[in-house]
Amino acid sequence: MSSPRQKFLNYVRQVPSARQVVSPFLPKPELVNKTLSYLGLPVGQDYNDVLDSLPNRIQNKIENEIRLSQELDYEPMFMSSCSELIFPWKEDKSCSNDDWIVSTLSTSEGEWVRQVSRRFGLFGDESGFPVKTEADHQKLVMVCEQVEERESEIRRYFREFRERVGEDGVIVIGHPHVTWLAYQISQQNMVLHAIDYPGAFKRSMEAICKTSFFVFDIAMQEGIDFMSESSYGLEMISPEQFENQDLHYTRILADWTHERGGLFWYHNCGKTRDLIRSGQFDHLGADVIETIAPPPEGDNDLAESRRHLNSAICSKGNLSLGLLRDGTVEEVVQATKQMVQAVQGYTHIHSTADAVFAETPAENFVAFLQTAREESERLA
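Request: output the structure for the sequence above.
Response:
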C-alpha cells in the first residue's frame, strides 16, 4: 500500500489511478492540537519554537499532525526553513531589552545588526527588517557568499526533517522569496529600493537566487520533495513588476529544479485572477500552484481560474480561511462541496486559501477534511 508521501507525489505527477489528495495548508499547531482533543486522540507536548534546535522546534508538531492526518484520511504537507538557513540571525542577549530583540550576523566586513520589536515582531513593524539603505544590500550579498561555510549544518537540518516526517507526508522547502530578499527587506522598501537603487536591488536578488541553488541542492539530496517559491498578488505589486521580477526568478528556480529531476511548488495567496487569465502562471514552470484564493483573501472563481491553467499543472486550494473560521459547519460543508465540484476533471489538491487560522473551530476543520474526501471520492 502506498504511503501518504507517495500518494501525494503520484497525484502531482498525474500517475494513472492516483487518488485525489486532500491536504490543508499548514494548519497552526494550536488548531491541530485542539482538533486531536475534539476527536479524543492524544496530543503530544507543545513544541519549543527554537530556530536552531530542530528536534524541539518541529518534532511534536509533526507527530501531532501525522496522527490527525491518519485519523481523518488526508495527506499532510510540511514546510521546512529556507531563508532562515541563509540568514541565521542570532540574538545578542547582552544588547536586547524588554522592548527589542537585537540580533547579529557576521560578515567579512564586520557585524550586521537587526533590531526587532518584541511587541510587534518582524512582520508587525517594518523597522525590524535589516535592509534599510543602499549599503545594506552589500551586507546581504556578503552573507549569501558565506553560506557554503554552513553546509554540514544545513544538511543536518534537512536530514533530520526528512527522518521525522518519514513517509507520512511530503516536505516543501520554505520559499526563498527572491524578490522580497528572503524576508530581509520590508514590503514597502521592496518596492522603493527596486525603484531608487535598481542596481543594488538586482545584485541582492541575484545573490539570493544563487544561494537558493546551493540550499536547494542539499535539500534535494536529503529527500525534500518540493523546491518552492512565492510572490505577491496584484494587491501588492504591478503586473509589470510581477513579469520582470517574480515570474523571471520563479522560472529560473523552477527550471533549475526540473533539470535535476525535482518537483517545484509555487505559492501565491493574493489576487491572482488576472495573472492566471493572462497565461503568466503557466510560464512559472511550477508543478503545483497554490492557493487560487477566493474573495476576500484573493479574487478567484476557482472553476474559471482552473480552466485557464495548463492541464499539466496541479492546482491547490482554495477554501476561504474566513469562512472556515467563522462559518457554521453546514456552510463549511457546502463550500467544500462547491470547491470539489468546481475542479472536477482537473488535477487539484483540495486545500485552503492559506495557512489555516489557529482560531478555526475543530468541528469546522473536521467538516472540511471529511467532506473534501467524501465528495472527491463520490465524483471520482
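Residues 198-221 form the longest helix (24 residues).
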